[in-house]
């Protein structure tokens, strides 16, 4: 059953890849590029979550006790941090991404992660927490009830846990207090640049050609495999956002390198449609070694003075599957490779070895990535 699932995964992914490349599908430029200078900024802060039902940090989390004592001191209540006994409080790290073009007063989502040994943040409320950027300035403040997707139930050795109850989110939980200016136009040259998500000279050249066909002339030029520079026409000098929207909707056919990606842990294999197999003969066989240990009880006769002992009995078996030789003809599609490997009935681990051997023999025309 495991082999069937693995190869169904391979076949489905490969068929999808074939469908994509046979049909020469196109995508929008904005789906494979991003405008240089348009980016988000990471924010981070330290805060306290209160209102937990006894699932907060223990007394051993000294920073939680000190933080709680400091917070109460600001509210006019003096408490020795060494005397704090509350289990309804947890120290947390709050992270968020400040999107581009966001204005002051807008709200953004935040993620809250436990810092100490709290068991769960379910039902907690984050107290007012400033979120800072890499320059140390406060760009947003977060506060509100947490939404935790997981839970923990039971105790001792009988415990059930789903997902991660020590990480939660607060949708629209932070208010932006300071905006970041976003500049994506080179005012001196009158240009902006498109950055490819997957750098490739062929794809960059196709993007430039499509833009030039739409705008006329040579408005777009390829700087390198990752960058296409576009000169802003005079008719769009005061309408750059509209120009970007128009360019983003233009269809382009991206070029995908011949690549095979194998994840041995999950058994997932993705084979690009441009992968080619040269003629090769392939044989594969498995040697399986099985070791089983059974424990038997040795009971001495009555009044013999002996002791009852547990005696382990080990059984070792080795079996080697019969090797079979297959010939893979010159493959114009990845179907030849899939059919041949499917006939061998290999496991995910064997599949990795076969692909590596094909690559080493020079029969696999493409890049092999094993994760």
TrEMBL record:
Top-level taxonomic group: Bacteria
Keywords for this entry? Bacterial flagellum, Cell projection, Cilium, Flagellum, Signal
Pfam families in the record: FlgI
Location in or out of the cell: Bacterial flagellum basal body
* Primary role: Assembles around the rod to form the L-ring and probably protects the motor/basal body from shearing forces during rotation.
The Swiss-Prot or TrEMBL record describes its family as follows: Belongs to the FlgI family.
Q: How does it assemble?
A: The basal body constitutes a major portion of the flagellar organelle and consists of four rings (L,P,S, and M) mounted on a central rod.
Name of the protein in question:
Flagellar P-ring protein
Originating species: Thermatribacter velox
